[in-house]
Amino acid sequence: MFKNTRQAKTNTIISEDEILADMEDLFVVGPTKLKEIVKHFVGELQKGLDHEGATVAMLPSFVTNRPTGKETGSYLALDLGGTNFRVCEVYLEGQSSVRLRQKKFTIPEECKNADGVVLFDFLASSVESFLKDSGVVPSEKELELGFTFSFPVNQTALNAGNLLVWTKGFNCGNTEGKDVVEMLNQAFVRKGLKVKVAALVNDTVGTLMSHAYNDPQTLVGVILGTGTNAAYVEKIENIKKWKGATPASGEMIINCEWGAYDEEKAMLPLTQYDNKLDAESQNPGQHIYEKMISGMYLGEICRNVFLDLIEKKCLFNGYLSEELKKQNSFETAFMSRIERDYSADLSDTKIVLQDLLGVPNTTARDRRIVRRIVELVGIRAARLSACCIAGLVTQMKKLDGCTVAIDGSVFEHYPHFGNRIQDALRELLGIFAENITLALGKDGSGIGAGVIAALAN
Ligand code: ADP
Ligand code: MG
Predict the structure, then answer these.
(1) Which of 160, 249, 323, 428 is most buried, judged by most C-beta within 10 A?
(2) Does a structural domain hold residue 251?
(3) How far is the CA of 312 from the centre of ligand 2 (A)?
């Protein structure tokens, strides 16, 4: 990837400045490009609203009412996000206040690629264990549950939807094209549990609804976690493909499935490192935007850069550790740690490289290069996220003000991620960027399922 002039100098040592200048050429996305992306993305949104089968699917969520904050009651919710799986009891107390009790479960790797029955049985036994712990015994009446299932689903009712395709490393047999609510309900029946799915919820819709419970200005829900996606409030007359009845509210929350944006690779500034990641992924050619932005992939982009520099003897004196050879060994969480390392000699970065990646004896130069690459990949992710947020605000004509609720570990834990989004929004929207409030919608995907179950009740 080095520029030809530099590639020619095979026998001279390439300086740190030259390496980093090349990386900046590749990874810095300037304001002109940002604006082009927004414009192109809005066009893609509209295609998705017009007809089925568009790249950005724009899936109707069947959620047509937003909460008032006065809803009350206790609801069970499941949140299957990609990395984490939670069983929650959501207590809506009215007056916009919510209490949450939750238990986290780790999804065994073998469940992610087994037959669907194995995965859904695992979900059902987790619910069983949660209920046992909390002493709740479902009585004659079935417990109603909100199911947050954060994979592309073609929803056909609030409590029914067919899985379109697995993403984020899942690939269970005998599931694609089938109704995920039915599969979960059947697993409850197999376990003899009196629990039934009342609402099937995408995490983006849940995040929007949960934040709207205490901030009615909330019109967008975004996920920046294992994957990325968003939902927003759309006027029903703009959803040309909608053939159902017009709801009283005149609006419907749309699950964009924006992770799939630019599968044509027509607009996003892909580098050879992104293309390599895509080619080696479980879903090559798909979810291109997600692969530049979300937690499952950011570390791997950095690893691909490191491998290239190591091969060219520009990093770690050409030493490639066994750990670094492994796909996904450089985790996105390491990027957060490295970006938080403000010490003069990057001492924590040294520990990460040594203890977690098996690269001892790094030089200060090595560590500066590593840190800058991490920063470039992290900044690019935040700026590209801003493009699609700006696209949604533009589509809604809400430049005069709205709240964007954001959930997911990348937004919550990656240092400066929110500020970097805000910086890019300023470049994109000028003074209007001040009207857009970015808010952490912590646990929104779980709470929102409870809120939606309450509205369905
Ligand atoms: P889910 O997507 O399952 O709902 P999360 O929102 O917790 O779960 O996102 C998990 C993703 O966040 C993982 O891909 C992981 O790499 C990434 N992640 C976890 N911790 C951090 C961190 N400190 N900084 C950046 N990314 C992180
Ligand atoms: Mg989540």
Answers:
(1) 428
(2) no
(3) 38
